Amino acid sequence: xxxxxxxxxxxxxxxxxxxxxxxxxxxxxxxxxNYQEIRTPILEETQLFTRSVGxxxxxxxxxMYSFVDRDGSSLTLRPECTASVIRAYIEHRxxxxxxxxxxxxIGPMFRRERPQKGRYRQFSQIGAECIGSESPLVDAExxxxxxxxxxxxxxxxxxxxxxSVGCPACRPAFVAELRSRLAAVKHQLCADCQRRSETNPLRxxxxxxxxxxxxxxxxxxxxxxxxxxxxxxxxxxxEQLRLRDIPFAENxxxxxxxxxxxxxxxxxxxxxxxxQNAVCGGGRYDGLVELLGGPSVKxxxxxxxxxxxxxxxxxxxxxxxxxxxxxxxxATYPAAVRLAQQLRxxxxxxxxxHIEQKLGRSLELAAKLGVRSAxxxxxxxxxxxxxxxxxxxxxxxxxxxxxDLVQHVQAAVPG
Length: 415
Ligand code: ATP
Ligand code: MG
Fold this sequence. Notes:
It is a single chain. By secondary structure, the protein is an alpha+beta fold. It contains 15 helices and 16 strands. The strands form three sheets. Strands 1-5-6-11-10-9-7-8 form an eight-stranded mixed sheet. A five-stranded mixed sheet has the order 13-12-14-15-16, with helices on both faces. Strands 2-4-3 form a three-stranded antiparallel sheet. α1 (15-32) runs antiparallel to α5 (136-152) and α5 (136-152) packs across α9 (228-243). The longest helix is centred in the first third of the chain and has 18 residues, at 15-32. It is elongated. The mean pLDDT is 94. The structure holds adenosine-5'-triphosphate and magnesium ion. Adenosine-5'-triphosphate is lined by residues 80, 111, 113, 118-120, 123, 125, 256-257, 276, 278-281, 303, 305, 307-308.
C-alpha cells in the first residue's frame, strides 16, 4: 500500500469543513482590515531563502526541500512565504503602487522537521505582510489583526509574547557581547549551541533544552542594549497595544528562527497544544527588501499556523447535515433530476441517488447519511402533483404540492 509521505497528511471530511471555515473567517477579517490576497508560486529559487531566512538558521541548514532541476538550477519548496512576497513585491515594482502594501496569503509550506503533534513537513499558514512603513502603529495593528484571526476562529486563552531584537545600529554590538559571554560558558552547552555561539549567537536564546536554561538565564538581554530609536519604537508599540486593550508579556528570548527580523518580534501561543504551542509568529523586517535587491522599504508580517489553529479548536464539528434526499422510482428519474437542480439552485444540500432503490432501502440509506428529510418522487406523486416529504428523525410524513416543495424544505432547514 502506498501511504502519504512522512510528515504530510490527508485532510478528510468533516475536518475539511473546519479548515474551510477558518480560512473563510480569516479572508473576511483581512477584507475588513483592507488586506488583499497575493498568491505566489510554491517553488522558488533556493537562493531566495538562503539569502533572506539566513544561512545559519535551522530552516536553511536542515529543513528545506531543495532539489536540482533538469537545467541545473536549485529550486526549493517554500518553507515560509515572507521571502516570496518580498520577491514578488520587488519583481512587480509594487513600491510604485500608492499607499502601504497590505497583502495576505493562505497556503502550504514545507520544512523537513521531525514530525509530531502540531509539527508537520507540509503545513499551512495564514499570513500577512504590511510593506511600506516603520511606524509602531502599523506593528500594533498587525498584532491586533493576528490576534483577531485567532479570536474569530474561537481560540480561547491566546497569549501574546513580545520582544524587540534591535536594528543594525545596536544589534552588532550586542551580538559581540553575547558572543564573548557565550565563549565563557560554551562548555555547558550542547554541540548545536556551541556552534551557534560563534555563527549565530542570538539563536542560542531559542534553545528549549532543559540542561541549558540556567546558563541562558545569565546571558545579557538585548532589550537592555537597544539604541535610542529602537527603544522609542518598542515603547510606542507597547503604548499602542495598551490603546487597543491588547495584553502582552515581554519575552527577551524571543528572537525567532529567521535572520531578517529587526525590532519587533512577537509570538502568540494557545493552550492545549503541548510543546508546539506557538500558533502565530511574526516580526518586523526593515532590511529585507533591500537585502533582496529592492528599494529601501520597511515592513512587518506574521504567519498563523493553520494546522495548530485547527488543533487548538475544540472538536465540536459534526458531519454536515444533508438537507434533502430524493427517493425516485424507475420512470420518475427525469423529474427527480429537475427537482434536484431547482433545490440546489436555492442553495440546499441535496443527495440524488444514482441507482434505483426500493423505497424502504432508500430511506434507510438516507437516514445513515444523516439526512434531515426525504422527498418521495413516485409515479402516483407525479401524477397528482403532490409529493410526500418525510422527516427522517421523527418519521412524520406530509404531502406537499410540487410548486411549494422548495419553500417547504427551506423552512425546515435551520439557520
Ligand atoms: P516553532 O518554534 O514551533 O518551530 P517557528 O518559529 O519555526 O515555529 P514560524 O516560522 O514563525 O514558526 O511560522 C509561524 C507559525 O507557523 C508557527 O507559529 C506555527 O504555528 C506554524 N508552523 C511552523 N512550522 C510548522 C510545522 N512544521 N508544522 C506545523 N506548523 C508549523
Ligand atoms: Mg520551527
